[in-house]
Amino acid sequence: MKKIYLLPFFAAVAVLMFNTQAKAQDSTRSSYHLFKPMPKSLEREEMETDRPNVTETPHTVDAGHFQYETDIFRHQREITDQSKQRRWLYNQANLKLGLLKNTALQVIVQSYNNESITDLATNQKQTGSGFGDLIIRVKQCLYGNYNGSFSIALLPYVKIPTNRYSDNQKYEEGLLVPMLIKLPHDWKIGLQVEGSYLRDDEQPSRHMEALQSVVVSHVLFKKLEVFGESFYTYNFKEHKINNFLDAALEYEVTPDVKIDAGLNYGLQKTAQKEYFVGLAFRY
Fold first, then answer.
1. Helices (H) and strands (E) in the chain — how many of each?
2. Which residue segment(s) compose the domain that 242 sits in?
């Protein structure tokens, strides 16, 4: 399984190394930054978002501009060997600010969460709700932010445990490497590898976890983009793999506003299932 998912990663690296037809890096946007916003004439025609799928875009927000992406509503359910968990997340927002041509700051705010955990052995139920955690991320596009058919970025993050309703009060951190290959006729292939240091589900200790994903998308009717995705996570402590299949739709209301809906479905019984509706806009 792991060897299969590594193939897209190596294919993307090969494209980066041997794509002789890629355009030269654009230097016209380099003089713009947070305090000198990029003019409208140089902005992206199409707003690039990190949603709706797990695989994120390597492209950054235009320098000096702001972008708001959010789960208006997300429902998660998960069954482990010890418990059954349900979570309802409202306005889980990603606030994105373009700092430089290829650099953007992101602050993910979990505005309101409601969760319940049922112990399968005793059938006792615990509930909690309130403001969630903060996640700080910086996206640095390494190649192809504005030109060419291939792009790649680094996206380190740290989760700050600001919630007061959950027993997960651990800092968590990781690194994402999203990639994008643009194909003819509005087809795209997204790839992502990720390593994270996370809290264990049932204990206060932590573990390393890897994620690899591939998504294929296509634009229909000029406004509607359809996504099909597969990814897996691997827990190095438990030597456990969870596989997921995802599907989503994203509709462009205007060039600066998009809405989406979809699901992330874990194939194993203990893998998480998610359903969501989202929104994104920029200015």
1. 1, 13
2. 2-282
Q: Fill in the DSSP letter of residue 146.
A: S
**Close Cβ partners of 184 (under 8 Å, ≥ 6 residues apart):** none
Indicate whether 167 pLDDT > 60.
yes
> Which two tokens mark 273?
């299932």
CA distance 23 to 25: 6
Q: Are 73 and 261 in contact (CB under 8 A)?
A: no
First-to-last C-alpha distance (Å) of the chain: 42
Which pLDDT does position 26 carry in this prediction?
56
Q: What is the CATH number of the domain that holds 168?
A: 2.40.160.40
Tell which residue, 26, 100, 29, 31, has the closest CA to residue 61: 100
Q: How far apart are CA 200 and CA 94, in angstroms?
A: 25
For 42-100, the pLDDT digits (tens) are: 999 889 999 999 999 999 999 999 999 999 999 999 887 788 899 999 999 999 999 99
Total structural domains in the chain? 1
At 17 the pLDDT is 47
Count other C-beta atoms under 10 Å from residue 242's C-beta: 18
Q: Among 214, 176, 170, which Cα is nearest to 196's? A: 176
Q: Amino acid letter at 63?
A: A
